[in-house]
Design a protein that fits this description.
Layout: H1 3-12, H2 26-35, H3 55-65, H4 78-81, H5 126-135, H6 144-154, H7 156-163, H8 182-190, H9 193-214, H10 223-232, H11 245-255, E1 274-275, H12 291-300, H13 318-321, E2 334-335, H14 357-366, H15 384-395
Antiparallel strand pairs: 1-2
Helix pairs in contact: 2-10, 3-9, 5-9, 6-9, 11-15, 14-15
């Protein structure tokens, strides 16, 4: 054990979380406890998806998650971008499927706790989120009619065991959908509305199955969590629960002077909301207005909480009913990502604008003005040691 960490452990026996005789204040202890996974409550039921916690649906969803035939070219599965060995993301600045997307792939650990999905919040449920890439021309690039026929040919028995009988697909075009090519869109519009609705129901169920699987993906305990548990219980952090002096300084900065926990709070270290913090535009990509673009998209989504394929009653749709619209703070505001295991998934931000955590900290120290809108970030006066310490602490969230 390095001598500094050994010294920290020895002194911690006297002054629980401090080196040099300093102990955490009551407010600091409360803040540390609030960030620990130990405070993460069980995921709540999804009233819009009655299959959300059905083990059969989750098993089917896992199959679909790894099914490359759910794409136009037969080469793209959800798992291509959400790699199970890479924290369910892909290490790329932009997701790459049938084509290259314009944003970074988000990790999936703890995703079931979210109220809004994607960097711009353009979907309001996990199952509606799972549907979007299936039709996106840059991701899976498929169509609703094509997916219904694929399920009928490859997974009819499994589907019907969970969701009931498939609709009659006789005479259904091979490919038809509202977001396909012009001929595919024309074929979709030519279908009677009851038939389109039946196909939408099959499509919605695919999303509900994938969501049931994704609800089982949770973040792993880290060295920080073991440290937080010891501090909360009045024990001296020891062994792999101990933090070095620099890591403890970084933790103090995180919950204090550096103001990180203003947005990166709670056991998932995200407030789940959208903020403009002056992050520069993604290089080589079209203008991206973030939440300002996401609001009209979620309101127009036929699979949103107020849509006809939602399970349960509409009284579960408060988030959507009272969504903030047309506010200046929505411009170039992006969802706060979880910092759990963040050190292991560079590059950072919605378009991979920063290659290292040190660059991220430097950005918040400088707090530049955004390309558009108003930044919430204020300059941070951190010394060289404090900047290094903050990065050191962030690494404990993935060890």
């Amino acid at each position: 054990m390095p001598w500094r960490r050994l010294l920290c452990v020895v002194l911690a026996a006297v002054a629980l979380a401090g080196c040099g005789g300093d102990s955490f204040s009551g407010a600091e202890r409360a803040a540390i406890a609030s960030l620990s996974l130990a405070t993460l409550r069980p995921v709540q039921p999804d009233p819009t998806n009655r299959f959300a916690d059905d083990p059969r649906a989750a098993a089917f969803g896992a199959t679909l998650f790894f099914e490359a035939r759910l794409s136009r070219d037969g080469q793209v599965a959800c798992a291509n971008c959400h790699r199970i060995d890479r924290q369910f993301q892909d290490d790329l600045p932009f997701g790459v499927a049938v084509g290259e997307t314009r944003r970074r792939t988000m990790p999936l650990a703890g995703v079931a706790y979210n109220a809004w999905f994607f960097w711009d919040g353009r979907r309001d449920s996990l199952w509606a989120q799972a549907l979007a890439p299936l039709e996106d021309p840059l991701e899976h690039a498929g169509t609703r009619a094509g997916y219904a026929q694929f399920i009928a040919s490859a997974y009819r028995e499994r589907y019907e065991r969970i969701f009931g009988p498939l609709p009659d697909l006789t005479g259904l075009p091979a490919q038809a959908g509202p977001l396909g090519t012009p001929p595919e869109r024309a074929a979709w519009e030519a279908m009677p509305e009851p038939r389109r609705d039946a196909i939408d129901g099959v499509f919605a169920n695919l999303g509900k199955a994938i969501a049931a699987f994704e609800r089982t993906i949770n973040p792993a305990e880290t060295r920080f969590d073991r440290f937080a548990a010891a501090v909360s219980e009045g024990r001296a952090p020891q062994g792999d629960a101990a933090l070095s002096p620099d890591e403890i300084l970084g933790l103090r900065l995180f919950i204090g002077k550096a103001r990180c926990s203003t947005c990166h709070n709670g056991p998932l270290m995200t407030d789940g909301f959208f903020h403009n913090t002056g992050v520069p535009p993604a290089p080589g990509k079209p203008a991206d207005l973030g939440r300002e673009e996401g609001v009209p998209l979620v309101l127009a989504d036929p699979f949103n909480c107020l849509g006809r394929h939602r399970d349960g009653a509409a009284d579960a749709c408060g988030e959507l009913r009272f969504i903030v619209k047309d506010a200046p703070e929505l411009k170039r505001a992006f969802k706060t990502p979880s910092l759990r295991e963040a050190a292991g998934r560079p590059p950072f931000m919605h378009g991979g604008q920063f290659k290292t955590l040190d660059e991220v900290v430097l950005h918040y120290m400088r707090a530049p003005q955004p390309a558009e809108g108003h930044s919430e970030a204020k300059p941070l006066l951190l010394s060289e040691r404090e900047r290094t310490a903050l990065v050191a602490f962030l690494k404990t969230l993935g060890e």
